[in-house]
Design a protein that fits this description.
The radius of gyration is 17 Å and the shape is globular. The chain has eleven helices and seven strands. It starts with a strand and ends with a helix. The strands form two sheets. It has a four-stranded parallel sheet, with helices on both faces. It has 231 residues and is of the alpha/beta class. It has two domains: 110 residues, Rossmann fold (3-Layer(aba) Sandwich); 111 residues, Rossmann fold (3-Layer(aba) Sandwich).
Length: 231
Amino acid sequence: MSKHIGIVACSAEGAALCYRALCAEAPARMGRHMHPEVSMHTHPLAVYMVYIREGNWDGVAELMLSSARKLAKIGAEFAICPDNTIHQAFDRVAAESPIPWLHIAEQVARAAKRQGFKRLALTGTKYLMTGPVYPGAFGRVGLALEIPDDTERQEIDRIIFDELVNGIFAEESRRTFNAVFQRLKDRGCDAAVLGCTEIPLIVDPDDCPLPTLDSTRLLAGAALEESLKAG
């Protein structure tokens, strides 16, 4: 029997991609049409954004814990969150949660290490790119990070919140990401972290100047592996 997965969602597009990726990957391991039991809970992104804009990570943690407690009550045995930015509240959440969690950046760091990358380009919201989530996870395994410059960070953040979370995937925005990745490649990066769970919906790995690490699908794969472990 597989473990019941709880998804603590924040934005709809990233959470939906994570759910679809998990269910699409599972049949190869579990059989036709099979996947683990999955439950999802989310507070509105607008509510999260009030706390994020204030830098109130305790407020973010309370929302995440509220979701985790509800998921635990209906049988979820561990939790994942397909949102990189709010992992800034992860330590408090993990300490108070009724169920264990997987950390999205740790899954990306493991994949980067496994594939032999050394210096990675990080994209995501402006809060993520300048925050501690990825420097902490990558630093623990000896990996370096580069982030876009301030103008690029502002444009990436705009694309995420004005377009991607609303299901808008513009060709011009795809080209913007590729241009940023090319500049970071020129600065010595050997791979790109798609560190917002919506970015994989617009960046094409076959067209990107750098190899990509898709945080959404890596988290989904890790959740599947954890679900299949013997209790």
